[in-house]
Amino acid sequence: MSADVTSYAAVDLGASSGRVMVGRVGPDSLELSEVHRFPNRPVRVPEGLRWDVLGLYAGVLAGLGAAGPVDSVGIDSWAVDYGLLDADGALLGNPVHYRDSRTDGVAEKVWATLPAEELYAATGLQYAPFNTLYQLTAARGSAQLAQAERLLLIPDLLSYWLTGEQGTELTNASTTQLIDPRTRDWAHGVAERLGIDLGLFAPLRRPGDPAGVLRPEVLEETGLTGPVPVTAVGSHDTASAVAAVPADGERFAYICTGTWSLAGLELDAPVLTEESRAANFTNELGLDGTVRYLRNIMGLWLLQECVRAWGEPDLGALLLEAAEVPALRSVVDAGDAAFLAPGRMPERIAEACRASGQPVPVSPAEVTRCILDSLALAHRKAVEDAQRLAGQQADVVHIVGGGTRNALLCQLTADACGLPVVAGPTEAAALGNVLVQARAHGRVGDLAGMRRLLIRTQPLTRYEPRGGTRPWQAAQARLAGA
């Protein structure tokens, strides 16, 4: 390998699988390769739905062993979930899954003490039943929380096992509903009013901060030669993905697609208005003082669950059939929490269509088209609302993540938004992870420089809007009951 090229291991953990990627960065090159993929299978035990975090850690170790010599390691994952450690640093049980039912009805109890409007004005975080704040409220009085001396979010827990050092990375901490997005520090008043002990959290780290070096035992297990530093990245996978949006000084909206769709704008300051709260927009923290102003949409989870229910048919063939189904025949609210839980997804989508007086999709192709039209419609509404609420226009929509492989979804999103869509990169979270590591080690420049390197090196596909937005406006009105 050239002396000008450095290698970084990006551990990227999603809701259904994890992988270790190796990124090689040179002055004008950026290459990414997957060296190990492993399943992430939640487990339902008598007390509820849990993550198999030990299995994930084993996958990380195997991946680092397959990665070969690297200059640094970074970890990103989904948000809000955490592990609790006792006074000896030992894990107190498997982390609770955000789709577990323990937070049902908890938000109303929180709002009785701290009204939703005040909570939003302090933290800028959208309501989601699984936010860490609600999880901690649900856990109050449990033996496990009573015994806990430390709380580590999932990427920080794995980093701790790798290095022995504890920290709380800021972009992920901003999803707990315990961070003030104006100060980019803990919301002490919120925690005090709700009886949450911020002393449970390790000190805050920023993307690019050192997070320790691999322990001797880890080096021995992986075959790596030390010292190998671990670098804090945008450890919320969306923060890493937005860092990898290939925008060059343009006014842009973004949609990070995968199990979820996260759609919105990159801002310099949070929007904490009551109107923003009512529209369920969130202000999460990004790189270099940015704010990820976005709305959570159920995303390709809807299709993933249907495909699972149908016995895993060929997805490519299914999408070709869906493209032939008449557009906007039936749509559902892709942000509806009714679709959050797993199971019976085709039936639940049919029930939603029936309840709203629309034609009921029957075949897999019809259900698939309903899902993709509904996602595109939700993307349109989120991009439209974000611009209005933030007072910032967008001239193009960037789609990154797994949904970039779905050409039909990308085209429908361009049609719905009435804006060009630039799709790519697919591996945005891993690329953002790699680039933050590379920047911390002096190999790339600022955020704009990182994005210019992506534009030069990554394959991108552009979709122009077709047919006007009037049919989408009509579908939006229909869904709103107008």
Architecture overview:
This protein is 38% helix and 21% strand. It is α+β, with helices and mostly antiparallel strands and 482 residues long. The chain has a seven-stranded mixed sheet, sandwiched between helices. A four-stranded mixed sheet has the order 3-2-1-6, with helices on both faces. Strand 15 and strand 16 form a beta hairpin. Helix 10 packs across helix 17, helix 12 runs antiparallel to helix 15 and helix 15 crosses helix 16. The longest helix is centred in the last third of the chain and has 27 residues. It starts with 5 loop residues before the first strand and ends with a helix. The model has no long low-confidence stretch (mean pLDDT 96).
- Across the major sheet, the strand order is 17-18-16-15-19-20-21
**How much of the polypeptide forms β-strand, as a percent range?**
15-25%
**Using DSSP, what is the number of strands?**
21
Main sheet attributes: strand count, strand direction, barrel closure:
7 strands, mixed
What is the helical fraction, as a range of percent? 25-40%
Uncertain spans, ≥5 residues at pLDDT below 50? none
Number of helices: 19
First CA to last CA: what distance? 62 Å
Content-based structural category: alpha+beta
- Overall shape: globular
- What is the rounded Rg? 22 Å
What is the mean predicted local confidence, pLDDT?
A: 96
Key structural traits:
19 helices, 482 residues, single chain, 21 strands, four-stranded mixed β-sheet, seven-stranded mixed β-sheet, alpha+beta
